[in-house]
Design brief:
Its EC number is 6.1.1.20. With 456 residues, the protein is α+β, with helices and mostly antiparallel strands. Helices cover 28% and strands 25% of the residues. It folds into 2 domains: 328 residues, Bira Bifunctional Protein, Domain 2 (BirA Bifunctional Protein, domain 2, 2-Layer Sandwich); 107 residues, 2-Layer Sandwich (Alpha-Beta Plaits). The structure holds adenosine-5'-[phenylalaninyl-phosphate] and magnesium ion.
């Protein structure tokens, strides 16, 4: 019966992505054909696509020749580029097969644009760069997460050997003063660095880290100010009343990345909650040292282009970006060449949702400690990203979200049980209950067959 349910392609010997061929390793390969098919889409380069329009608006805030743009870097990278070069420890959960799409043990679909930092810092063609690219992650299913999305990475360095008097602090301050001002109120209660939570690097002086951090934050604030300016204009054009606009709220929160310190994330208020739009920080000096530019010091950021595009066009659900429906794409036509045409997205009527629950026991001996979003785990253990992947393979984009409702440990046997709610809703049409039932039955069959769970 497994074969009957299986939507999984036969394990290929090799895969070809963007006309390059890679050998597949049975132990590591976990890229479904759904995902492989998306590697050619490159929404950030598709004319008049909201992701491409967003990219161009942000590029205008980081102009050449200070910032050079790289928009065609290959999505297939090595584990060294994606993880080791950035200082990810060997046991970092991001490396697990449950989180990352592998082709073989040393080759993967990049999980972030930071995979290209070492290469571009080494190339040293300009004081700054921008990279826009498709990135891949096995992740949860909801309105702001998708397994393929687009990031823009930015970086800026200053070189002790070339700034006047070797004075980095003065040079950064001069560049900061040359940046435009903005009038947004930004919530930023954070100190420039913090000995435990957000430490200064040993090779940086407090003044250097503070100056670089200020230049970084101002640059990114100017980026969101530009986005909000475009939102305001588009609202005026579409006749949206001021009282119907969402309050404009932006905040900085402390964060952690293996490749920056101190680090922060920017969050923006959107549809009644805080939406994380980017991560950033002062680049770890070892990356610049390893890239052969130990005299440089600088910052880097990585933002989610879809998340910014959601703010810019008021797009409510990340699945829409993949729509080929003219009712979606038609709304952006002509905007790339003329931002004066930018208008808020008008949603198509919302089709009804259909919830279905699935409850199951984990295979005996599986603790499922990581199931509820917890990170650390061993290979072979239960992880909810595996469930998400099955749901995506079986249902494609007709699932809006998958939410853990309940978990339970049997007092005698110690076995773990979970109940998840799958919300079926198409963006494009009304699903019949029979259709949703059929999908749900297939999801159940697949999780039994692939994950070894027992339906309750
Ligand atoms: C990173 O990927 C870091 N490389 C960012 C960075 C670069 C930090 C340089 C410091 C220096 P993170 O995993 O938080 O960080 O992702 C960055 C952004 O990508 C998030 O803020 C969010 O906007 C977006 N993002 C993350 N996961 C998804 C997803 N599944 N779907 C859509 N957007 C996502
Ligand atoms: Mg993050």
């Amino acid at each position: 019966w497994r074969a009957q349910y299986s939507t999984r392609p036969e394990l290929p010997k090799e895969v070809t992505i963007n006309s390059k061929t890679y050998p597949v390793d049975a132990e590591w390969f976990n890229v479904s054909s759904t995902i492989l098919n998306l590697t050619s889409r490159k929404l950030h380069l598709q004319k008049d696509h909201p992701v491409s329009i967003t990219r161009q608006i942000i590029e205008s805030v980081f102009p050449s020749p200070t910032y050079l743009s790289y928009n065609n870097l290959d999505p297939v990278v090595t584990t060294h580029e994606n993880f080791d070069s950035l200082g990810f420890p060997p046991n970092h959960p991001g490396r697990a097969k449950t989180d990352t799409y592998y082709i073989n043990s040393t080759t993967l679909l990049r999980t972030h644009t930071s995979a290209h930092e070492a290469e571009l810092f080494a190339a040293s063609k300009s004081p700054g760069y921008l990279i826009s690219a498709d990135v891949y992650r096995r992740d949860e299913i909801d309105k702001s997460h998708y397994p393929v999305f687009h990031q823009m990475e930015g970086a800026r360095v200053w070189d002790r050997n070339t700034v006047p008097n070797g004075d980095i602090v003065a040079a950064v301050h001069r560049d900061l003063d040359a940046l435009p001002k903005h009038e947004m109120i930004i919530e930023d209660p954070n100190p420039p660095f913090h000995p435990e939570r957000n430490p200064l690097q040993p090779s940086h002086t407090p003044e250097e880290a503070e100056a670089v951090g200020k230049h970084l934050k101002r640059s990114l604030e100017l980026m969101v100010a530009e986005i909000f300016k475009r939102v305001k204009e588009s609202h005026a054009r579409a006749g949206v009343k001021e009282q119907d606009e969402e309050p404009l709220k932006v905040r900085w929160v402390e964060a952690y990345f293996p490749f920056t310190s101190p680090s922060w994330e920017m969050e923006v208020w959107y549809q009644g909650g805080w939406l994380e739009v980017l991560g950033c920080g002062v680049s770890q000096q070892h990356i610049l040292n390893d890239a052969g530019v130990p005299n440089q010091i600088g910052w880097a950021f990585g933002l989610g282009l879809e998340r910014i595009a959601m703010l810019l066009f008021q797009i409510p659900d990340i699945r829409l970006f993949w729509s080929q429906d003219e009712r979606f794409l038609g709304q952006f036509r002509g905007v790339e060449g003329n931002l004066g045409k930018l208008r808020p997205f008008v949603g198509f009527s919302r089709h009804p949702a259909c919830y279905k629950d699935v409850s199951f026991w984990l295979p005996a001996g599986s603790t499922g400690a990581a199931a509820a979003g917890g990170k650390g785990r061993e290979g072979g253990e239960w992880h909810e990203n595996d469930l998400m992947e099955v749901v995506r393979d079986v249902c494609g984009d007709v699932v809006e979200d998958v939410v853990l409702m309940d978990s339970f440990t049997h007092p005698k046997t110690g076995r773990r049980s979970f109940c998840y709610r799958v919300n079926y809703r198409s963006l494009e049409r009304t699903l019949t209950n029979e259709e949703a039932n059929g999908l749900h039955e297939r999801v159940k069959g697949e999780i039994v067959g692939r994950l070894g769970v027992e339906i309750r």
